[in-house]
Specification:
4-stranded antiparallel sheet; globular; mainly beta; single chain; 7-stranded mixed sheet
């Protein structure tokens, strides 16, 4: 079945960088768009970035535009989020998910990976 496993989080100082990875299985990865979400304590889950199935198009939330880069490797069934110039407001648990058209796997969330930006 659908599995999404996020990794790569950690503790970094403001201005630092991290690269998150999401390993996907249980579906034909190359046919699906992928998205990154994050959720900070006491806040709603927020859509951060999306990438279409062949990496031709990406979209970003205004809060991360210019600092984060979404990419994917269809041969490895992985999607990545390169995060630079990190700010304390980026602190959250980061999740990935997959979808095609109206079908998104929002019943299949991974455990997420914690990103903490602090001095």
């Amino acid at each position: 079945q659908v599995q999404l496993v996020e990794s790569g989080g950690g503790l970094v100082q403001p201005g630092g960088s991290l690269r998150l990875s999401c390993a996907a299985s249980g579906f034909t990865f190359s046919n699906y768009a992928m998205s990154w979400y994050r959720q900070a304590p006491g806040k709603e889950r927020e859509l951060v970035a999306t990438i279409n199935s062949n990496s031709a198009r990406t979209n970003y939330a205004d809060s991360v535009k210019g600092r984060f880069t979404n990419s994917r490797d269809n041969a490895k069934n992985r999607v990545y989020l390169q995060m630079s110039t990190l700010k304390p407001d980026d602190t959250a648990v980061y999740y990935c998910n997959a979808g095609e058209g109206r079908l998104w796997f929002h019943d299949y969330w991974g455990q997420g990976t914690q990103v903490t930006v602090s001095s």
